[in-house]
Write a structure and sequence with these properties.
The structure holds two protein chains of two kinds.
Chain A: H1 12-25, E1 39-42, H2 49-61, H3 68-85, H4 89-97, H5 109-121, H6 125-138, H7 143-155, H8 159-170, H9 175-187, H10 192-204, H11 210-227, H12 230-243, H13 248-260, H14 264-271, H15 278-289, H16 295-314, H17 321-331, H18 335-346, H19 352-365, H20 368-381, H21 386-393
Chain B: H1 2-14, E1 24-32, E2 35-43, H2 44-51, E3 60-62, H3 63-68, H4 70-78, E4 81-85, E5 88-89, E6 92-102, E7 105-115, E8 123-127, E9 138-145, E10 148-154, E11 160-163, H5 169-187, H6 189-199, E12 204-207, E13 210-213, H7 217-243, H8 251-270, H9 278-300, H10 307-336, H11 340-367, H12 371-378
Parallel strand pairs in B: 1-9
Antiparallel strand pairs in B: 1-2, 2-7, 4-5, 4-8, 6-7, 8-11, 9-10, 12-13
Helix pairs in contact in B: 5-10, 6-8, 6-10, 7-9, 7-10, 8-9, 8-11
């Protein structure tokens, strides 16, 4: 692990060398360092005042664990940290901060909302929905709970219910957030154009919240991409990246766009400094695979990626099935293994990217029942996604 | 408000894209008889999170800083790991400190050794590392025995796991539990005394309010067979029900009732109430003793992969141990049955002694009085 934390600032070529050394060292036997001053680990809060403050707050909380305000503040900050860094350890810390109330069904509303957020990020969608249902029964105008539930419902493919939540959210939030809530379920159930124009209209009077604007632009880019309008998608991605060049989700979405547009070389600088993030390492790896002069980097990253999936499997994690299916299919050429993962993943989440890998894996494995399942899903939801439709058409 | 909304929303979108790795520690336990050897790889980040390693607060952990915390780490980690064999804790001691790398960073490596006071077929491992600072932490155990290894994951939901007892194939495993069953009945004095109380009068006949020597060996044998079969059948039923988790009784209640059953069986020889239908008493009280066997089996631990086999083995062992006692007892008792010594010394004296001992057990178990222990400490 030596050096990885510093990689963000390191030159790309340098990073590869360090990584290669690291992967080679991963299987080395335990050792006793010879130099007392050798740095074994760099902590995430190094050079990050926000994370340093979070650490101080967590330390303070251990003295007063029943302080609800302090606990929810720590949990919220830890969730933010997990989102910013892509590091799930922060989610564990968020849960620890709420441990006094975690198992209580009738926990305070602020705790229930955070618990729902943590549960959904562990893909416990049923648990998250149960929490959100309880919150919204008690307070139908709870905007955060409403938006979060709409999002979870969209992820699991319950678009009608998600739209209903978004309609109720509109009364208590800004037009941009309302349009952003509505866009995913609407665009995924046969009304992509309507969702897209509503988003653009809302973006005409965007307000001052940069985060909301960036989020709406990302949604617009994804819808445009699915509809096959690559020019518009490119513009929206560029505008969103200009607002927040470090957003990991946005980078991943743009990297996928570049890969689909056969522009792998542009992916390299985009995610080169994000290899701690599994999802972005995967995009880097998929790009390197298609760029001849990146063969050495590809080999090193492939080994690293496999090691990480292996580590996740050992702990019984199933959070990365979508990514692992892509890895197995595109990198390892294991269509059967990819199909199993993609099907298991599809049973849990139903986003376009989940359908895409399901179809790709089913095609490679020549699995007619799965392809039929995908065709039926598209017919039922009237999904507009050029890439998926093209992939399915290629099978007939 | 909107800002907070967006944060949540973006997190949702990130969902599966989250990366790095959640907190894991890698534990290896290698068992050879009663002795344990282990290695525990614990992430420096997690240790820093729990007890603070970064003494100078520069965000870097050096070997010097780690060394300075070795004693604290040992106490913290070993305080959250309990390995027990046959119901008794195996004390562990860290023997060496090293460092290693895993996919998500540097780990402290603790090498440890331990010796179990009681060896048993399984180990019960109670793992609670980082439970309070990161409930999503998992302990990934690799249990090694006789060259075979097996993986087990500890999580917040499953902090206690039973390992071992399932290596070496089904026959070895069956033999292991047969062996444990035999020893359990031989060392479980309450069961032996109960059985003896029922068997002592089997070679006699109650006539005119006194014990007379019985007639044929065949009659005595049939009487013994009835008692032993009833006892066996009854305790097999409850042992299985309890071991498989269908029925559960508080162990203090069970142990007290077993002691009481011994008292009653012994008193029945002195003041006979039940003379002819002793097998019925054997059956009724046998149900109780089955729960006692189940408690002992729980301490030994049942390997989850082959529960039925181990349970059957233990039961067979108990029966074999019991038959051995009977095989020894019956010929001797038959030969001696007409003597004054048998009827006065063994039946009357023995039953009185058994009733007295069992009464003390009962008081100890029911009222939590350490009577025998108190006597021992007076001496």
């Amino acid at each position: 692990m030596k050096g990885i934390a510093a990689m963000g600032s390191a030159a790309f070529g340098m990073a590869i060398i360090v990584l290669t050394v690291y992967v080679a060292g991963a299987s080395a036997a335990p050792y006793v360092p010879t130099d007392d001053a050798v740095v074994l680990e760099r902590l995430p809060e190094r050079g990050d005042p926000g994370l340093r403050e979070l650490k101080r707050m967590r330390a303070a909380l251990t003295a007063t664990p029943r302080d609800l305000d302090a606990a929810t503040l720590v949990a919220r900050r830890a969730i933010d940290a997990s989102r910013a860094t892509g590091d799930p350890r922060f989610l564990g810390q968020a849960q620890a901060a709420l441990s006094q109330w975690w198992t209580l069904p009738e926990a305070p509303p602020s705790v229930v909302l955070l618990r729902a957020t943590i549960r959904q990020s562990q893909h416990d969608f049923d648990g998250a929905l149960a929490d959100l249902d309880r919150l919204l029964r008690a307070n139908p105008r709870a905007a955060q709970a409403r938006l979060t539930r709409a999002t979870v419902l969209t992820v699991v493919g319950r678009f009608v219910e998600a739209q209903s939540d978004c309609r109720q959210l509109a009364a208590v939030t800004t037009p941009l957030v309302a349009a952003g809530c509505m866009a995913p379920p609407t665009s995924l159930s046969g009304e992509a154009e309507l969702a897209y124009t509503s988003l653009l209209q809302a973006l005409d009077r965007p307000g001052t919240d940069v985060g909301a604007i960036e989020w709406a632009l990302t949604l617009a880019a994804e819808i445009a991409q699915r509809r096959g309008d690559t020019v518009a998608a490119e513009q929206h991605f560029a505008a969103a990246l200009a607002l927040d060049p470090s957003d990991a989700y946005l980078k991943g979405a743009y990297a996928d766009f570049l890969l689909d547009s056969d522009r792998p070389r542009e992916v390299l600088p985009l995610v080169a400094s994000d290899i701690k993030n599994d999802a972005l390492l995967l995009r880097l790896l998929l790009a390197e695979q298609r760029v001849p002069d990146q063969r050495d980097a590809f080999a090193a990253h492939r080994a690293e990626m496999a090691a990480r999936f292996d580590a996740a499997r050992r702990r019984g994690d199933s959070l990365h099935r979508r990514e692992e299916a892509r890895f197995r299919l595109a990198v390892e050429g294991d269509s059967r293994g990819a199909l199993t993962l993609a099907r298991d993943n599809w049973n849990v989440q139903r986003e376009p990217a989940d359908l895409r890998i399901l179809v790709d894996a089913a095609r490679a494995a020549n699995d007619a029942p799965t392809l039929r399942l995908a065709t039926d899903w598209i017919a039922k939801t009237r999904l507009e996604d050029k890439a998926v439709v093209a992939a399915l058409a290629g099978t007939r | 408000m909107i800002r907070a909304l967006i944060m949540i929303f973006a997190l949702l979108m990130a969902g599966g894209a989250a990366a790095h790795k959640a907190s894991d520690a890698y534990l290896t336990v290698d068992r050879n008889g009663a002795s344990l050897q282990g290695q525990w790889d614990i992430a420096l980040r997690d240790l820093d999170n729990a007890i603070g390693l970064d003494a100078n607060g520069d965000g870097e952990i050096t070997w010097r800083e780690l060394k300075a915390h070795h004693a604290e780490i040992d106490a913290y980690a070993l305080g959250r790991l309990r390995i027990a064999s046959a119901g008794e804790t195996c004390p562990l001691k860290v023997s060496d400190h090293l460092v290693d790398s895993h996919t998500d960073g540097a780990y402290a490596v603790l090498k440890f050794v331990g010796t179990c006071p009681q060896s048993g077929p399984t180990l019960t491992i109670d793992y609670r590392l980082f439970r309070d600072v990161d409930p999503q932490h998992r302990g990934l155990l690799n249990f090694v025995e006789s060259g075979e290894s097996r993986s087990v994951v500890f999580s917040e939901e499953t902090p206690v796991r039973v390992v071992g007892g399932d290596s070496g194939g089904p026959l070895v495993q069956l033999a292991t539990y047969v062996h444990e069953g035999i020893w359990h009945i031989w060392l479980g004095f309450d069961h032996v005394l109960f059985l003896l109380s029922l068997l002592l009068p089997a070679v006699l006949i109650r006539r005119d309010r006194t014990w007379q020597p019985g007639g044929s060996f065949r009659a005595a044998f049939i009487e013994v067979a009835k008692v032993v079969t009833a006892f066996t059948l009854a305790h097999s039923i409850t042992l299985s029900l309890a071991a498989l988790g269908f029925v559960s009784l508080p162990s203090r209640w069970v142990e007290s009732a077993i002691a009481l059953s011994v008292v009653l069986a012994a008193l029945n020889n002195l003041f006979p109430v039940v003379a002819k239908g002793r097998w019925i008493a054997a059956f009724a009280f046998g149900l109780l003793h089955g729960f006692g066997f189940a408690g002992a089996l729980k301490d030994l631990g049942l390997p989850t992969g082959s529960l039925a086999l181990s349970l059957a083995g233990f039961n067979i062992g108990v029966e074999l141990g019991q038959l051995a006692i009977v095989a020894l007892f019956l010929p001797l008792a038959y030969v001696l049955r007409a003597t004054w010594g048998y009827r006065r010394l063994l039946l009357a004296g023995g039953s009185t002694a058994i009733a007295a001992v069992a009464a003390v057990w009962f008081a100890e178990r029911a009222f939590d009085l350490p009577l025998f222990a108190a006597l021992a400490s007076v001496r």
